[in-house]
């Protein structure tokens, strides 16, 4: 089955002068026997599953749109604020107001610029904290979304529920109608006899019109059922 799947994915590929070992190629394996065990905490239990060693160099599916963490907020925020010319200008004026030869006002008036600048920065900090709080909240929602993955768990082939941030390169994901796609994917099979599915990419490019994606018949014939998908082994090369 491995050699047959290799022919399926490479038989229709145009000949290229590039070396397959070139960095421009990425080889993605699925259900391959040359794998190692990793531990994952799924929705059901903590289990062992196989992952190809080549996939360890790829990043995870974890999504992070937040700007700050608890530890880097103040240095990162202050650097951002004082990268603005206006804030630096008022900071310099505030410092000079405490030096007598350059002081514009006397006594309590010396604190005017510093107090004003502090209030402006404090309001900006509160706004950034609130906005980043909602970014963290949205990240947790996206990363924690459930997904059905077909993978070999503890030597048994099974469908398991895992979080989106638990999806790895080479996983075979089962999607249902109107379900969001957790990562970039290759379409293997679908229920439509013509092999056509319709995808909305509004979250990526803002377009609401449906786009057609077609399953190659030679691939869909080998992946028409869950049992077939769990038994196949192969790889796909991406340029």
From TrEMBL:
It comes from the Eukaryota. Residues 54-106 form the P-type ATPase N-terminal domain. Keywords: Membrane, Transmembrane, Transmembrane helix. Pfam families: PhoLip_ATPase_N. GO terms for molecular function: ATPase-coupled intramembrane lipid transporter activity. Residues 1-24 are annotated as: Disordered. The chain crosses the membrane at residues 88-105, 111-130. GO terms for biological process: phospholipid translocation. One of its GO terms (cellular component) is plasma membrane. This is P-type ATPase N-terminal domain-containing protein. It comes from Timspurckia oligopyrenoides.
């Amino acid at each position: 089955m491995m050699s047959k799947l290799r022919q399926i994915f490479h038989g229709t590929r145009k000949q290229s002068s590039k070396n397959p070992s070139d960095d421009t190629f990425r080889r993605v394996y699925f259900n391959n026997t040359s794998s190692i065990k990793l531990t994952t905490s799924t929705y059901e239990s903590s289990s062992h599953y196989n992952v190809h060693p080549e996939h360890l160099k790829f990043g995870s599916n974890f999504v992070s749109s937040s700007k700050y963490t608890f530890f880097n907020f103040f240095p990162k925020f202050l650097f951002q604020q004082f990268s603005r010319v206006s804030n630096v200008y008022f900071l310099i004026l505030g410092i000079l107001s405490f030096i007598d030869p350059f002081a514009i006002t006397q006594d309590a008036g010396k604190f005017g610029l510093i107090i004003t600048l502090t209030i402006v920065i404090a309001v900006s900090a509160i706004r950034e904290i609130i906005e980043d709080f909602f970014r963290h909240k949205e990240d947790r929602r996206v990363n924690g979304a459930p997904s059905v993955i077909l993978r070999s768990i503890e030597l048994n082939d099974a469908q398991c529920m895992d979080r989106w941030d638990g999806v790895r390169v080479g996983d075979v994901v089962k999607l249902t109608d109107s379900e969001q796609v957790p990562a970039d994917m290759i379409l293997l099979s679908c229920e439509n006899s013509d092999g056509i599915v319709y995808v909305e990419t509004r979250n990526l490019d803002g377009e609401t019109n449906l786009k057609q994606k077609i399953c190659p018949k030679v691939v869909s014939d080998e992946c028409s059922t869950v049992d077939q998908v769990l038994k196949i082994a192969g790889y796909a090369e991406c340029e």
